[in-house]
Design a protein that fits this description.
The protein is of the alpha/beta class. The protein has 13 helices and 12 strands. The strands form 3 sheets. A 5-stranded parallel sheet has the order 2-3-4-1-5, sandwiched between helices. The two termini are 39 Å apart.
Length: 389
């Protein structure tokens, strides 16, 4: 216990508090069992440490990593018992998915200790419904993605712009500092601004590590697949990264990577859940995520630049950015006449010379243009959709 407390102190000392991710104020911290999931590298650990540092009593709080060597001989439930006996009130468990019986033991901890609040972080592929210890009735789980363009400007350039709703953006209600020039920063964000570690040295190496650990550790651990299948996932990711964008033909892909066609939909879902790809569906499902997949994108533009050795297609980059930034607050589906549909709005994404032709049949059609600073009529700058969260 003393060693765990010492590790916690060291982490608190190195935790910055000047900038908070968008989820910090959205989480209801009063929940007894609270989870924060998301792709590797988006800042889940830092957010939990910030909350502990700024809002909780250090004497009654403990932060542990589920991968700590301590748990090679000790159980989480035993740690919770001892912690509560010593007056503990908040137990934060980082990377819970690395602990073998995490679901069963979280359930026991929740049931045994009514006065203990348990917060945990985990991979976005983590399924609280899986297994005998269904936590769905006990745990409130939030999902977090990487930095928006707005957060990037604040975190790395100290430019503070409020978040705007989709309605604000398309109605040109966005206000920015008079001297702000978005395209001084926009390309840098597209290339390496999505992850909070973007400004660290050797960013590309760190990004490759995120990709490899997701493919070689997170997905195999969850799906109980072997190493050779993990290699197939990497092949599939490379195929997607080279497409503009990718319209999946399951039979062809199955042949290319040497797997059964029936397994491919699971592979796509694993890649999507872990934040490596985004699947754009149609509206036939009626509920988010249930429609038929129409297009497949890499999850964010940083992955596009990191995975493709050649320059990525600019049209694909624009569409990837739009989908990535708008999906946090809205359900985005494919459009029959254009690129995207959100509620009753139709969006066609392109460069500054993009014409209105494809929107002639749309009542609420909008052109989203790259390389313009201000919007007018039904034309909105692409970069402004990065202010949505």
């Amino acid at each position: 216990m003393e060693k765990l407390q010492a590790n916690f102190d060291a982490m608190l000392r190195s935790t910055p508090t000047l900038f908070h991710r968008y989820m910090f104020d959205r989480i209801n911290w009063n929940n007894r069992l609270l989870g924060l999931v998301g792709p590797r590298g988006v800042g889940k650990t830092t957010l939990m440490l910030q909350y502990a540092k700024e809002k909780l009593n250090r004497n009654t709080t403990l932060f542990v990593n589920a991968d700590d060597l301590y748990f090679s001989t000790q159980h989480l439930v035993d740690l919770a018992d001892e912690f509560v006996k010593r007056g503990g009130a908040h137990l934060i468990i980082d990377e819970i998915h690395k602990y073998k019986d995490w679901a069963r033991e979280l359930k026991l901890m929740y049931d045994y200790h009514a006065d203990l609040k348990i917060f945990f972080t985990g991979s976005s592929i983590l399924d609280i419904h899986k297994g005998a210890a269904d936590l769905s009735r006990r745990a409130i789980v939030y999902s977090m993605q990487g930095l928006s363009f707005r957060e990037y400007l604040n975190m790395f350039h100290h430019i503070e712009i409020p978040a705007y709703t989709l309605t604000d953006i398309i109605q040109h209600h966005v206000e920015v500092p008079d001297d702000f020039r978005p395209y001084v920063y926009f390309q840098s964000y597209l290339e390496q601004g999505y992850y909070p570690f973007s400004q660290e040295e050797q960013f590309n190496i760190r990004l490759q590590q995120v990709i490899n650990k997701t493919l070689e550790i997170d997905i195999p651990q969850y799906a109980e697949i072997n190493v050779s299948t993990a290699r197939k996932l990497k092949q599939l990711l490379v195929i997607i990264s080279r497409s503009v964008p990718f319209k999946p033909n399951m039979s062809n892909i199955a042949t290319m990577i040497g797997v059964g066609r029936n397994n491919l939909s699971d592979y796509f879902l694993y890649l999507e859940e872990t934040g490596l790809i985004a699947q754009l569906r149609d509206g036939t499902g009626g509920i988010r995520g249930l429609g038929k997949v129409d297009k497949v994108y890499l999850d964010n533009t940083n992955l596009m630049y990191g995975l493709t050795q050649k320059t990525s297609d600019i049209g694909n980059i624009r569409e990837t950015f739009f989908l990535n930034q708008t999906r946090v607050e809205q359900d985005v589906i494919t459009s029959k006449i254009s690129d995207f549909e959100i509620s009753d709005y139709i969006f066609e994404v392109g460069g500054k010379n993009k014409k209105q032709k494809q929107l002639q049949e749309a009542e609420n059609g909008f052109i989203v243009k790259d390389n313009i600073e201000q919007g007018y009529m039904n034309v909105t700058p692409l970069w402004q959709f990065g202010l949505n969260y």
